[in-house]
Amino acid sequence: MWSRLREVFARELVVLVDPTSPQHARRRKQLTASVGTIFTLGMAAAMGVAPRSAFNDPGAPRVDEPLRMPDVRDQLDQLTDIDTDAVYVRQERMQRGDTIASLLRRLGVDDPDAQAFILKNPTARGLFSLNPGQTVQAQMDDSNMLVSLQANLGGDAATSRELVIERVEPAKADGTASYKARVQNVDNDLRYEMASGSISAGGFFKAMDAANVPDEIVQQMLSIFSGVIDFQHDIASGDRFRIIYEAGFQDGSFIRNGRVVAIELINRNQLHQALWFAPEGDSNGAYYTFDGRSMKRPFLRSPVEFSRVSSGFGGREHPLHHAWAQHKGVDFAAPTGTKVLATGEGVIDFVGRQNGYGNIIILKHASGYSTYYAHLSGFAGVQQGQRVSQGQVIGYVGQTGWATGPHLHYEFRFNDVPQNPLSIALMEAPVLTGKSRQEFLGYTSNMLSRINALRTYNVLTAAN
Ligand SMILES: [Zn+2]
């Protein structure tokens, strides 16, 4: 695995060094865009330098060049002609409770044949899968008959699945119109958005809102750092973040957000950086630190989901940790119903009720580890013997058994001996040792020095 990661870094390095390399075109764009933006904007902001444009800078050099005007007489003639083939375009948003009839009416389409086609054609019925707020565009002729219709059915940031319904030309001999429908993949225009800010006394989610970080990007951020940071208890006022993420556009209109490609978080003066890498031919990309450690850890830092609801609960104090040697675990205060997550991949060893624990789940993990989740208000449909993945919801916070208020009692055991779960952050992802580590560090320091060079270059560009 390390030799492959090293190759990835080496390849990225080549791409950084040789911008004309035809290989990995998309990832080159991704990497240079993320690295470029992260440092350009960051440094420009830090230096208080705003990029200048020739329009607002009277000192900027101007270019005077004679312009040849196109001959527009033909176009003017066309505009003033009475054109019986005119096509009108209209766009509408799906509304809650919309039917095909009500949608077509709002679009200004009055065409029973088209309506009948959409209702019975399996592909065209894809329109029914649209959510309220999604847009539908229709072209119609001057008698309000449908010429074509497009709707974006979904996809990812880079690609959209577009439903196209078209009238077949020419019409049938008896004058009735026929239609056809297809779904096609359309490339979106992929852009890199940047958001940055700092955590204030208002807390994590207020800071994310203030920096206009979309919810799905916040969720990715929580997931990327879930092995190293307990957002409920570790995040502090003054922490800073910078995020670069993909966003897909069509004809200048926002379609949807994609993946976080680079992220930086300074938590209590400790710098965390992660980059997304998807090795060529491997769809399972992951987040890595600059020194080549996977961001993934065998266990999550917190067994309770951090959300807008739970974030204000129990303050920013550390989890109740009272004499855990006798207590055997750590108590995480959270509202009843908060999702409880399997902190590591494993098998359900016990699910049910035990005296003081109330409703409890015990998970068995590899290498002699096990975890206990107690006082649950309910189980998330899990059964004994079932395999669960890291981060999977297994139950809900409650106060069953001997509990005075809603909280999760969490135990972390090694060979059935309780351990302090707050110390498991020390379990880092595997890292290279000996000679191979030296080789690896050589590659990454080389890459970092080039990124530093890029940083300097971009600062100069922004300042000039
Ligand atoms: Zn407890």
UniProtKB/TrEMBL annotation:
Domain annotation M23ase beta-sheet core: ranges: 326-421
UniProt entry tagged with the keyword Hydrolase: yes
EC numbers on record: 3.4.24.-
UniProt feature coiled coil, ranges: none
Domain DD-carboxypeptidase/endopeptidase Mpg-like N-terminal residues, every copy: 88-150
A GO MF term: metal ion binding
Requisite cofactors: Zn(2+)
Gene3D superfamilies hit by this protein: 3.10.450.350, Glucose Permease (Domain IIA)
Pfam families registered for this protein in UniProt: NMB0315_dom_I (PF22310), Peptidase_M23 (PF01551)
GO biological process: proteolysis
Record key words, sorted: Hydrolase, Membrane, Metal-binding, Metalloprotease, Protease, Transmembrane, Transmembrane helix, Zinc
Protein name: Murein DD-endopeptidase MepM
InterPro entries: Cell_wall_metabolism_enzyme, Dup_hybrid_motif, M23ase_b-sheet_dom, NMB0315-like_N
Top enzyme class: hydrolase
